[in-house]
């Protein structure tokens, strides 16, 4: 009767409330237990295939408020790494860090490079972070194994998530790994540096716990997601081309491209960086000219013609940052992931499920056929490229992760990183231009690649 339904609803509300309390206690434990758990919590918040939505939502707050170490510790680390007093190496060195993460923090400085004063960024690993992470993961693996025996926690795949993540986290502690990633990305994009670029590594200044790279001017792409500008569509095109280039051409994907790691700046016709204030001044002059108003540098007899600096020679350039997380795709990974994307474009849910079930080195899905049926049903509803709204790639990806969690499909961390990268790309693109559809933009390039094995289209043109 109605009393039974009310009691069941009350019990469900209580269960949800208790679960949220449990997630918040885990969040508190992560914040207070060191870098390994903070980073694991950040990573887990992106794993919709392993964890429920309320868990991911609560743990995502770990992306804010990362720990900061003292300038005294920064000085000690830099001087130990290079064997010189800070004042001898740098003309100036800002004590307050520009930003901090769970592994390291960055400071702005100035030093002589090729005999000329140059602004640089110094990345300094937090003291003792490597040993703490090793110790934390040894303990955490044991606790995850015990927790996984509890029936109520089995669905969280704690043991698998800790095992997958520990290797990634350990590699991130060595800044020489990040430096190697940066050099490789810079080499991959050197032919299109006018469209996509990276900071320049000062190779003689790379150490396990400290590295120095060039300071790059620019504005976070987040600025453009909150402000409609004439270059938003250009930024979207560059972002899509960059991701497809990494995936299809270079076989090396930056898997941490959140807005904080993507900057935008303007170049003039000679390839020189134009300050944002200068760009905005040119835009204002262009708008005034279009409205017929006289501009500075133009005469009243010009009849509202072209302004002195119309800005038409300017173009956007992306600057990619923070290369600690990157995935090199083996032949099987490339095949199954790109084939999965093509299955989305063609609306073939069963074929997509077939590839996705190969995303785990050891697949533990108890009912693959039931998973395939659910995938077919979801694709029939959401993957019609000819529909008026097209394919919502972000919605499809998140739906796939939810079905993977429901059916306990094993997804190795490399594949999960690629999926999350697609979701971030879609969010970045639609934030810049709500009218854009990434599936429409990418489908032709993916189809050409699947047929010919070559990249075709407007990549970096």
How does this structure look, described?
This protein is of the alpha+beta class. The protein contains 17 helices and twelve strands. Strands 1, 2, 3, 4 and 6 form a five-stranded antiparallel sheet that branches. Strands 5, 7, 9, 10 and 11 form a five-stranded mixed sheet that branches. A two-stranded antiparallel sheet has the order 8-12. Helix 10 (232-250) runs antiparallel to helix 16 (413-432) and helix 12 (331-346) runs antiparallel to helix 13. The longest helix has 31 residues, at 2-32. Mean pLDDT is 81; it is low at 298-311.
Portion of residues in beta strands equals 5-15%
Integer average pLDDT: 81
Number of helices: 17
Secondary-structure content class: alpha+beta
Q: Uncertain spans, ≥5 residues at pLDDT below 50?
A: 298-311
Brief account:
The protein is α+β, with helices and mostly antiparallel strands and 461 residues long.
Sequence-ordered SSE layout with sheet pairings:
Blueprint (H helix, E strand, L loop, with lengths): L1 H31 L2 H10 L8 H7 L11 H12 L3 H4 L2 E2 L5 E2 L3 E10 L2 E10 L3 H19 L10 H15 L2 H14 L7 E2 L12 E5 L4 E2 H5 L6 H19 L1 E3 L7 E6 L5 E2 L1 H15 L24 E6 L5 E3 L2 H16 L2 H8 L11 H15 L10 H14 L6 H20 L5 H15 L9
Parallel strand pairs: 5-11
Antiparallel strand pairs: 1-3, 2-3, 3-4, 4-6, 7-9, 8-12, 9-10, 9-11
């Amino acid at each position: 009767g109605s009393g039974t339904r009310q009691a069941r609803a009350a019990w469900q509300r209580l269960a949800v409330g208790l679960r949220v309390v449990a997630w918040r206690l885990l969040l508190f434990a992560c914040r207070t237990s060191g870098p390994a758990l903070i980073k694991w919590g950040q990573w887990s918040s992106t794993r919709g295939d392993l964890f429920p939505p309320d868990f991911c939502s609560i743990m995502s707050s770990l992306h804010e408020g990362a720990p900061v170490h003292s300038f005294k510790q920064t000085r000690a680390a830099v001087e130990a790494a290079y064997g010189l007093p800070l004042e001898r190496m740098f003309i100036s060195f800002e004590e307050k860090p520009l930003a901090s993460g769970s592994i390291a923090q960055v400071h702005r400085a100035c030093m002589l490079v090729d005999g000329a004063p140059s602004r640089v960024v110094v990345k300094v690993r937090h003291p003792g972070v490597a040993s703490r992470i090793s110790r934390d993961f040894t303990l955490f693996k044991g606790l995850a194994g015990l927790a996984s025996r509890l029936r109520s926690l089995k669905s969280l795949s704690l043991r698998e998530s800790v095992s997958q993540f520990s290797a990634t986290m350990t590699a991130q502690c060595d800044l020489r790994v990040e430096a190697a990633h940066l050099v490789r990305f810079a080499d991959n994009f050197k032919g299109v540096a006018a469209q996509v670029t990276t900071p320049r590594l000062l190779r003689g200044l790379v150490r396990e716990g400290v590295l120095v790279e060039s300071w790059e001017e620019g504005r976070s792409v987040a600025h453009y997601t909150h402000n409609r500008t004439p270059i938003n569509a250009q930024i979207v095109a560059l972002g899509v081309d960059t991701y497809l280039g990494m995936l299809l051409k270079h076989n090396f994907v930056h898997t941490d491209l959140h807005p904080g790691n993507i900057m935008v700046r303007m170049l003039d016709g000679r390839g020189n960086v134009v300050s944002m204030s200068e760009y905005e001044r040119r835009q204002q002059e262009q708008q005034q000219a279009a409205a017929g108003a006289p501009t500075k540098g133009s005469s009243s007899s010009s009849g509202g013609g072209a302004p002195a600096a119309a800005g038409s020679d300017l173009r956007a350039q992306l600057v990619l940052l923070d290369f600690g997380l990157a995935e090199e795709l083996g032949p099987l990974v490339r095949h199954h992931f790109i084939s999965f994307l093509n299955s989305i474009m063609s609306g073939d849910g069963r074929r997509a499920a077939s590839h996705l079930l190969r995303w785990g080195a050891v697949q533990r899905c108890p009912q693959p056929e039931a998973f395939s049926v659910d995938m077919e049903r979801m694709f029939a509803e959401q993957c019609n490229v000819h529909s008026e709204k097209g394919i919502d790639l972000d919605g499809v990806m998140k739906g796939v992760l939810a079905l993977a969690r429901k059916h306990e499909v094993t997804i190795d961390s490399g594949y999960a990183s690629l999926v999350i990268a697609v979701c971030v790309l879609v969010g970045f693109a639609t934030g810049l231009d709500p009218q854009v559809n990434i599936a429409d933009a990418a489908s032709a390039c993916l189809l050409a690649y699947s047929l010919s094995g070559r990249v075709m289209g407007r990549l970096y043109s």
